[in-house]
Design goal:
The protein has helices at about 5-20, 40-55, 75-90, 110-115, 130-135, 145-160, 175-180, 185-195, 215-225; strands at about 25-35, 55-60, 90-100, 120-125, 210. It is of the alpha/beta class. Helix 2 (about 40-55) packs parallel to helix 9 (about 215-225) and helix 8 packs antiparallel against helix 9 (about 215-225). The longest helix has 18 residues, at about 5-20. The chain is globular, with a radius of gyration of 20 Å.
Length: about 230
Amino acid sequence: MGSDDIFKKRRAAREKRKHDYKSPKANSYLIATEGERTEPLYFKGIQKRIKQKIGGSIDVAEVPVIDIHGSGCATGKLIEATEQIVKQAKIIYQNIWVVFDKDDFGDFDQAIALGEEKGYKVAWSNQSFEYWLYLHFYYSDSALHREEWNEKLDGIFKDYQLGIGEYKKNYGDIYGMVDCYGGVNTAIKHAKRRMAEYREGKDKPSEYNPGTTVHQLVEELKRYLDEN
């Protein structure tokens, strides 16, 4: 075997070891969302502002929408998808969050428990992420269907002259829109108020309607923006 072949093999081995080795990345977040539009666009809004201010590594993974019409599709699929993202990632994320709604899924509680069992943090909403958006403007503890939250947001977007005057799931800067007049801080305050009586490990998320823990993730990320 010639010296050139030996050199090529050694270089290939070094490259493989470099590829296989994953290093922990400080201040890194993987945010895997069930939705393709509103949720990732919202968190990309935070991501953009953090990068503009201090940099850092926050990856928002857009997991394909789960088809709720199929008998085999359920919220737990997001946990499986997140596992694949983590395995294929080039770094070890310090913080792994999964974001999903209850909607009409029957395995909502099981999916939350499975995610936590795997060491993920779960930002859930019952019934939908739109409830979290509504809290940017007003407080509510009314148990409404997700379509009713959409209708309420329509009214808000009209009153505040946001976007085209109605709520759409594909607004590129949905984060900036709902943060008008300090909306994010308001949402955090409202969510904490609503979840104050929620008993972790005793109350079922599927029965805590409305409810959301999205504020826990947002508060973690927002501290990077609030630092001087």
